[in-house]
UniProtKB/TrEMBL annotation:
This is Kynurenine formamidase. It comes from the Bacteria. One of its GO terms (biological process) is L-tryptophan catabolic process to kynurenine. InterPro entries: KFase/CYL (IPR007325), KFase_sf (IPR037175). It comes from Blastococcus saxobsidens. GO terms for molecular function: arylformamidase activity.
Length: 321
């Protein structure tokens, strides 16, 4: 990873940045997802008219490779039982009636595929979301793990912001940035302005380069994405954005071009405002459909897995039009 010796400390950079700590009580673990109540769910359901369904998860164990954050490895799936286990001398047990079955397991980073980050996933100054002590992460997240997010689920109106198409490109490039003003301009151009409490789904199609370039993709790793500014953070706060979903590995430009700091928005949005982040989605079919039918707002439903103490969880979000 790039190391910028002059990069300011996050605590200094974000010292005047807003927080939502305490807003939903001293025990809150789902943050801005509290903005999604029955009213938002019912309004989102009204957007369903054609019955078209899209799933946003990338394949786990893709023969072409699984894109992951540097230092993580893709999931390994191991076959434990298959028909060969009932060959002569095989380990398959004999069941009354002649049952045979297949079993397998995976060894995977919980953030190694399309995923929800727990709010306690990142921090600085020894404090995670809602001001909980970062020592609560030792040995597993005792506070703000992915479990409470999984227990409540995520349902609301989502808007696709197709930044690649808006910029007239197949994909955004390494280190390319965009701001909240670009998101609003994209939404206006698509004919669907962003509303308060919308789930934002941003398409860059950057991971196309992973499949095209293989390992070379990781050289000078610096993903495109949203870039920090106090105004952007305030916009997320004013718009009460509950959930930011993208098709990149980490949702924001990896190294802020203005100061060199890594993943500033993970901290300004997730740690401080309680915005849930969802990463590595596959938006290609949905984006093609939106370009065709012009419907950029729709019902979004996601339920990460209930992993006790987990700092994240795989998920297969569903969009219904
Ligand atoms: C890190 O926070 C390092 O990665 P991600 O949010 O992509 O899981």
């Amino acid at each position: 990873m790039t190391d910028t010796p002059t990069a300011p400390y996050l605590g200094e950079l974000l010292k005047d940045s807003p927080t939502n700590w305490g807003k939903w009580g001293p025990d809150d673990e789902v943050g801005a997802l509290n903005y999604l109540g029955p009213e938002q769910v019912l309004a989102a359901v009204q957007l369903v008219s054609s019955g078209k369904v899209f799933t946003l998860q990338r394949l786990i164990g893709d023969p072409k490779g699984d894109p992951v954050w540097p230092g993580r490895s893709p999931a390994e799936r191991t076959q434990i039982l298959d028909e060969s286990d009932w060959d002569e001398g095989g380990k398959g047990a004999e069941y009354p009636g002649g049952l045979h079955y297949a079993d397998d397991k995976i060894n995977a980073f919980l953030q190694g595929s399309t995923q929800y980050d727990a709010l306690g996933h990142v921090w600085y100054d020894g404090k995670i979301w809602n001001g909980y002590d970062a020592r609560t992460t030792v040995g597993g997240l005792d506070r703000a793990s992915v479990q409470p997010i999984a227990e409540r689920g995520v349902v609301g109106r989502a808007v696709l912001l197709d930044m690649a198409r808006f910029r007239g490109r197949e994909n955004l490039d390494k280190a390319e940035t965009y701001t909240h003003e670009d998101l609003m301009a994209c939404a206006e151009a698509q004919g669907t302005p962003i509303q308060k409490r919308d789930i934002l789904i941003i398409r860059t199609n950057f991971l196309r380069l992973f499949f095209e370039q293989g390992e070379a993709f990781y050289e000078g790793f610096n993903e495109p994405g949203l870039v920090y500014s106090p105004e952007l953070v305030q916009w997320f706060q004013d718009m009460e954005i509950p959930n930011l979903v993208t098709d990149t590995i980490a949702n924001e430009v990896t190294f802020d071009p203005n100061n060199g700091v890594a993943l500033v928005l993970h901290n300004a949005l997730m740690r401080n405002l309680g915005v849930t982040l969802t990463e590595i989605t596959d938006l290609e079919q949905l984006a093609a459909d939106c370009a065709e039918d012009g419907q950029y707002a729709f019902l979004y439903v996601a339920a990460p897995l209930k992993v006790a103490k987990g700092s994240g969880s795989p998920v297969n979000p569903v969009v219904i039009k």
